[in-house]
Write a structure and sequence with these properties.
The complex is a heterodimer of chains A (about 250) and B (about 475). Chain A has helices at about 20-30, 45-55, 75-85, 100-105, 110-135, 155-175, 210-220, 235-240, 245-250, and strands at about 10-15, 35-40, 60-65, 90-95, 140-145, 180-190, 225-230. Chain A is an alpha/beta fold. A 7-stranded parallel beta sheet of chain A has the order 3-2-1-4-5-6-7, sandwiched between helices. In chain A, helix 1 (about 20-30) crosses helix 7 (about 210-220) and helix 5 (about 110-135) packs parallel to helix 6 (about 155-175). Chain B has about 475 residues and is an alpha+beta fold. Chain B has 2 domains: about 80-195, Uridine Diphospho-n-acetylenolpyruvylglucosamine Reductase, domain 3 (2-Layer Sandwich), CATH 3.30.465; about 200-270 and about 280-435, Vanillyl-alcohol Oxidase, Chain A, domain 3, CATH 3.40.462. Chain B has helices at about 40-50, 105-110, 130-135, 140-145, 170-175, 210-220, 260-265, 290-300, 315-320, 350-360, 400-415, 430-435, 440-450, 460-465; strands spanning about 20, 30-35, 55-60, 75-80, 85-90, 95-100, 115, 150-155, 165, 185-190, 195, 200-210, 225-230, 245-250, 305-315, 335-345, 370-375, 385-395, 420. Chain A: This is Decaprenylphospho-beta-D-erythro-pentofuranosid-2-ulose 2-reductase. Chain A: Belongs to the short-chain dehydrogenases/reductases (SDR) family. Chain A: Keywords: Oxidoreductase.
């Protein structure tokens, strides 16, 4: 159960090797979490992520479970297995791929993979998780969207459009789950310094996985429906969103 | 119109009950449950039998601050429809009533007969069942002990759907008192009452200039009064840390009432007035360090240095907050957290450290009270133990509050103290066994009595009760 400050005791990270997912899990373990599931494709990264969490809090029940966002047919079974072991207070939808915009424009198969992972996979896993959370009458579903979902940009519109779809889906799901005890929170980070963005030119208001995790914790506490990281992105994007296109095009974003 | 026969009163079907958000008085962590409201003992039995996989928990008037009467995804049994007073022994001072009867109702019925409830908390709007489940205490704990000490027997509906009569001395009785509704549903209870001549109190008020002065005064003169409590200003710092206003009272004898007043004609009158309810749209942050600081300053200065023998209405003395329905809304949408702990006599240094810590952090608590408890009570999970108890409320949105309370928990546990489960909404489960040494017995009794875990609450899930 979550406590009065929204701190969960059990956490399921879909995309268990993601840096943001791991940062959130770490933060929750320091607070109240004693059971953490890291769901992802089996890999040394996933195992070392689990090991790092166990080292952080010996005695915590940290487990990995095989999960592939693209294999939507298996989602029900995988998540069913996790929920059968006990209540999950927080489900974090943290998987996603950035793709390579230039290459994906040339080779649409790559773009399809981005769309299927970030959007289709998340729709499937999100609905399965929502139904399980609904059954237990409590819990939060935190969805990692992106500031890129807010307005399409030349430089990353394939990724941005997949996150835009995910963002709209999560907002609607939040509405659908009102009154069921399940809380849906959309998190929109800006440029996050991580493996995913290594080598890319940093955008203004760049942030870190740790800052995203802190924002998630605070959002859970206030039962927020949308969280921007950093918070200054909210007013910034409110302006950018309505900037005339010729002007927006010229911005060094 | 042809005469129609009214349909037979069907049993409350738990599976069809509406799923609604349920929260405690602090409004911090609402979860959704099917709310079932049994109107007869048969319906209560049916409700327990039909709880389903996620179990059920009885609920009274929802005054527990945290998640004690919530059950996410399961059933919550609203017991307030079972509210009959079956018998009053006006000569012997015993009442037999349903568990859904409120203390408010008992006062309305019993005061004209010259009887008062044996123990009342800071609100009359709790049920008898809730009072037993939380084994509540009042300002008279140092003299009278907790509520359950005045329960002669009770009927308990257990997980197997049977109704058992249990009495003091029975392990099931002791597990039920303070057991937070997890042993079963209390259906009826018979209580021993307190005789009174009037519905008035004679009240002595005095100021204490700091925490040590306060403790000295309480220690020296508590035994002279049936009721004793101190309001403490947790925002005062420096030399004034822990300054307080002591309020001690006793039931006023008939002779103490002035001859000329209406009071003399109807000395047992009980008609508490209520103001309009607090509105539901109040924002967070109304009760910050500034507003509470001003309130505390005025409250302290308003109090006389020493005044004895003042006559107060019973409800003004015991339940000032009941005058404002839904007062919990003033904390806004984020709600608030109550923190109450007890540390034993001899652990005054821990109490001093905690008070210094709270005032050092400028925590805006305007309802902080300090009291001396008498000996501990027989309930396995009953809260009171001989020592000092401090209760405070704080806005849940206060930055850093979670970490601060965790630190206080450590301090309390290290001093051999405990926090009060009826008010808890955030304790770390790891600390529970140290705070409640009879927890293992409680768990074992539950495992034997209720192996499927029919009685489950958000509190029991969170703390592993």
């Amino acid at each position: 159960m979550k406590d009065a400050f929204g701190a969960p005791q059990s956490v399921l990270v879909l995309g268990g090797a993601s840096e943001i997912g791991l940062a959130v899990a770490r933060r929750m373990l320091v607070r109240r979490a004693r059971a953490v599931w890291l769901a992802g494709r089996p890999s040394p990264a996933l195992d070392s992520a689990a090991a790092s969490l166990r080292a952080l809090r010996p005695g915590a029940d940290v487990r990995t479970v095989e999960f592939d966002a693209l294999d939507t047919g298996s989602h029900e079974e995988v998540l069913g297995k996790v929920f059968a072991e006990g209540d999950v207070d927080l489900v974090l939808l943290a998987f996603g791929v950035l793709g390579d915009q230039a290459r994906d424009e040339r080779e649409p198969a790559g773009a399809v993979r981005v769309a299927q992972t970030n959007y289709t996979g998340a729709v499937s896993a999100g609905l399965v998780a929502a139904s399980a959370l609904r059954g237990q009458g409590h819990g939060s579903l935190v969805v990692l969207s992106s500031v890129a979902a807010e307005r399409a940009r030349r430089g990353n519109f394939i990724y941005g459009s997949s996150k835009a779809g995910l963002d709209a889906f999560a907002q609607g799901l939040g509405e659908a789950l009102r009154g069921t005890g399940v809380h849906v929170m959309v998190v929109r980070p800006g440029f996050v310094r991580s493996r995913m963005t290594a080598g890319l030119r940093e955008a203004p208001l760049a942030t870190t996985p740790g800052a995203v995790a802190a924002a998630v914790e605070s959002g859970l506490r206030h039962r927020a429906s949308t969280v921007w990281v950093p918070g200054a992105l909210r007013p910034a994007m409110a302006v950018l969103r309505h900037l005339p296109r010729p002007l927006f095009r010229r911005l060094p974003l | 119109m042809p005469p129609t026969q009214s349909p037979p009163p069907d049993l409350a079907a738990p599976a069809d009950a509406p799923a609604v958000p349920v929260s405690g008085w602090g409004r911090t962590a609402p979860t959704v449950a099917r709310l079932v409201r049994p109107r007869s003992y048969d319906e209560a039995v049916a409700a327990v039998r039909g709880c389903g996989a996620r179990g059920g928990i009885p609920r009274g008037l929802g005054r527990a601050y945290g998640d004690a009467a919530q059950n996410a995804g399961g059933a919550v049994l609203d017991m307030t429809a079972l509210d009959r007073i079956h018998a009053v022994d006006a000569a012997g001072g015993v009442v037999l009533c349903d568990a859904g009867v409120s203390l408010h109702r008992l006062m309305q019925v019993l005061l004209p007969l010259g009887w008062f409830v044996p123990v009342t908390p800071g609100t009359r709007y709790v049920t008898v069942g809730g009072a037993i489940g939380a084994d509540i205490h009042g300002k008279n704990h140092h003299v009278c002990g907790s509520f359950s000490r005045h329960v002669l027997s009770l009927e308990l509906l257990t997980a197997d759907g049977t109704i058992r009569t249990v009495a003091p001395g029975d392990p099931l009785f002791e597990a039920t008192c303070g057991g937070m509704g997890l042993t079963g549903v209390v259906l009826t209870a018979s209580l021993r009452l307190q005789p009174v001549e009037t519905s008035w109190m004679t009240v002595d008020t005095e100021r204490a200039r700091d925490l040590d002065d306060l403790m000295a005064r309480l220690t020296a003169t508590d035994h002279r009064h049936r009721y004793s409590v101190a309001w403490i200003d947790l925002l005062a710092r420096g030399a004034a840390t822990g300054r307080a206003v002591l309020t001690r009272g006793d039931h006023a004898p008939r002779a103490a009432l002035p001859r000329s007043r209406r009071a003399r004609r109807d000395p047992l009158e009980f008609r508490p007035s209520r103001l309009p309810a607090a509105p539901s749209f109040l924002p967070d942050g109304l009760l910050g360090p500034t507003t509470v600081g001003i309130f505390n300053e005025l409250w302290y200065r308003r109090a006389p240095r020493l005044r004895t023998g003042e006559l107060q209405r019973l409800h003004a003395f015991f339940h000032p907050l009941d005058g404002v329905p839904h007062w919990n809304r003033v904390y806004g949408r984020s709600g608030f957290v109550q923190y109450q702990f007890v540390v034993g006599y001899g652990e005054e240094e821990a109490l001093r450290r905690i008070v210094r810590r709270i005032s050092g952090r400028r925590c805006p608590s305007f309802l902080a009270v300090l009291k001396r408890f008498g000996d501990g009570d027989p309930g396995w999970l009953s809260f009171p133990t001989a020592g000092w108890t401090l209760a405070l409320d704080l806005p849940a949105g206060l930055p850093g509050l979670d970490g601060l309370l965790d630190e206080l928990d450590e301090e309390v546990a290290a001093a051999g103290g405990r926090v009060y489960l009826a008010k808890d909404s955030r304790l770390r489960p790891e600390l529970l066994p140290a705070m409640y040494p009879r927890l293992e017995e409680f768990r074992a009794l539950r495992a034997a009595l209720d192996p499927r875990g029919v009685f489950t609450s958000d509190l029991s899930r969170r703390l592993g009760l």
